[in-house]
Amino acid sequence: MKARTKIQKKITALSKALPKITAEQKADAMKMHKAYTMVTYKHINYCLECGHKWRADNAPVRKTKRSVCPKCSEKLILTGNSNGSGFYDTLGHRDTKFYGIITVHEGWQVTRICISERYMRKKEKPRRWFKEVMQVWMDDKGNTQIISSQVANLMGYEHRWGESPLEFRGGVSFAHQWKWNHCPNRVWHKRKVIPILRRNGFTGSCHGAIPHQMMQALIQDNMVETLWKMKRYGFAEAMVYDQLGDKYWGSMRIMFKNNYNLPFDQISIWKDYVDLLEYFAKDTRSPKYICPGNLKKEHDRLVKKKKRLIKAEKLELQKARIALDEVGYEEYFKKYFDLTFKKGELVIEPLRSVQEFYDYGDKFHHCLGANSYHKDPKYLCFVAMVGGEAVENVQISLKTFKVLQSRGLQNKPSKHNAKIVKMVEDNMGKIMKAQSA
To answer: Global pTM?
Structure first.
């Protein structure tokens, strides 16, 4: 889309004046591709780094997923299917990474996103493709404008960037579309930030968050700014991704005052724990409750207690309440019910009734039903099944289109967790399409 407004025309001109990506930066991006790969077929091993092939008993390789190329002596990692068949073994292996450059140009905060791909195929040496595919321009008020190359959505889950020039390709909500919110795998070490970001505590490191989202929040959200200056980066990221809200701020302050620390993956459990404390009319400003010695144990204890209270209610009253909730749930979430993601034995489907929330909450011993996740229109919940057996429930944000949590038995990730999260992320385009239907 051609630049139409004054600000778009200005950014287009400024973008052309940006310095080109240097050879040093491209070399730095190559450091992301550390893994050397190989594939096997029958009794033949193929090194995808130098193209060499050799005969050997590859049963040990398929077991350990590791080997050493006798020609180039590189330590190799097995990729593709274990039986030697499939796309990666017959066509090749594509290693895709995103590289970021955080800089300032004419008073604008600029995040430059590049894509770096190494394409490897049997009997051939690796080929590389590197291109700048997106720029996020932000002013000192946190307003953003995005220009990017054209991106194709393949089969609803895979995005492929083309050689098209950087242009404006969206409207007002453009910056919040999932497919544009890429977190770089590596960022150029020489980073520059505008004065207001430096004043608000940002020095260049995003600590795992998406750069332009975090920088925008640091300018526009006082709570995120405070958390960032306190070096509570996990809580700041949770605020940006809509996992925490204003109602938890008082409890967080008490927790910080008592030097109670939590890793990022435990914040969602802590949030649920605070909700449970409120349910039982406990003081959510008391360190006694807010800072448990064993968070998971206390969380699970309250979940069981709440479930016992729910089960103790009269059966007819519970059925009536669920039936009433079913009407509202189906009315709001019905447009997502046709979504089904499949890959081999792994199948992921949305929860299609309120009763399923309680059933899976009982099955996995977590708070999916007890905390009434079905009543919050900001979130969409799925069940992941392997071989017809449910293994995890997945929660995504319908605002940021990010996976917030994916947990199975006892609120822990199953052995399939990485595959489940990746499949949901790969199919996020279908969820966005269903939302707009």
So the answer is: 0.68
